[in-house]
Amino acid sequence: MLGNSTKSVLLSMVVCAFVLLAACSGKVEENGTNGGTKPSDNGVKPTETVEVANHDPFGKIDPPIEVTAIRTVNSNLKFENGETIENNAWTKLYENEFGIKIKYLWVSDPSQYEQKFNIAMASGKLADIMPVDGIQFNQLVEADQLADLTEALEQYGAPKMKELLMKDGGLGIESATFDGKLLGLPVNSGSFDTAPLLWVRTDWLEKLGLPEPKTMEDVFSIAEAFVTQDPDGNQKNDTYGLGAAKDFYGLEPGLEGFFNGYHAYPKSWVEDDSGQLVYGSIQPEMKQALAKLQEMYANGHIDREFGVKDKEKFIQTVNAGKLGMFYGADWSPLLFLDGKSLDEKMEWKPFHLPSIDNTPAQPQTEYNVNQYYVVRKGMKNPEAAIKLLNAASHDWDRGKYPLTDMNRNGDVDKWQYALLQAANPIQNVETYEYVSKAVEKQDESLLNLTSNPGQASFYKGINDFNNGDMSGWGFTRFFDAITILYDYHTKDQFKMTKFISGPTPTMVEKEATLLKMELETFTKIVMGESSIDAFDEFVINWKNLGGDKITEEVAKWKASK
Description:
The chain is an alpha+beta fold.
């Protein structure tokens, strides 16, 4: 039950991240807006003509063009009615509405894409339009192989598509811009879901007469009470205070939120007092937080088995009713539906991150642009990529392009057929706005299901739960967490990493080794196997084994912006 519930929800959220609204005709009037010539009244003789560019975002390129492309296709992607990745409703839309015929040079399983792409790049056989990750993007930028899309986006970008690109405050566009040239179209699915929140069993708080956590001192006291005061009432010393797992970091259960309470930001790049970017894991605030974690572990206030527990065992601990607090993601309650079924009294509530002092804690968020759409330098019609992205963000005529052809038909995910896909980086913020109004007015028509079908699940879950149906508990608590994320967003209190780019060359070479060293060192410190002074040795080793070189590369990247 747990696996299916979680899979279903996460799938819906992934689908909702893409705005594949699909297809109303973009017919162009025969009045000169589709290219061609017109008389000039600027000193040109009446018999002469001048070319007029067609800047209609949905105009058809005439004569039609053939565009080469490469892409990944998952082996389990389904097709029906004779469709293929080369011939489907999306490729037909591209050709019929925009005059763009897609010719795939090759299509690869994701596991083989990097190898095939590297071969294509080395041989100089690049496609006109390509989806690339951050590493590949940086390689192409360094090799000067990418077309500047600045003018194409300005002239051909549809207003709605431009709006989507800027909903992250321009971070994605900034990450793709070098020396004033836009060299890629970022796919930003948003960073809000990467923010840690504090989750606490409030039924245990009430039973023990404890206040809700507002400070880090509250966190320490709650962790101790959950271990020593028998919150489950079975007369045994078998409950845990603060949850953790052997991966140390992660959305559930991760310890980033604990460090954020000390204004420390592991695995993130932050500005120091001089304005330089520095690696958060080696800053002094980390040592202070690690010392406290070591103390809590020694006192038994942290799950003593965290060093050998993976995420699944952590979930089992929660569902068994043995854990009272952890730092996790907004969707975390969806992992605990089995536990809620076993014990209806089990109640989890999300909280803003408590702070160690009077300065509010800021939840760290990741840079979540993991793909760019790029155009080969020298391509004759770079605006084709802009038009294809317009197609993904446009509300098409459903009579001509029904959702069952363009988005999903049963278990066939046809939105994946699109070569370019548009993402909404603030979908959860908008989900809060629409769902809260719909619930307040009890009017489902207030939901924006066109852009985010997942809103219906929240609306139904909240109403079901409010009417006594426990099956809606997970979505209700999920929405409680989104409410907190909305508050952080409106107050501009997220702490996003300042390095918004694909990995630098030394990151590619050294980062995995450095991170392994970091996790091993910090785990040993917390478990008391190493003294807190091992942190200072770690900082020195991190710098010497590639960290200083990475910091130099990050500084160079910052200077290029």
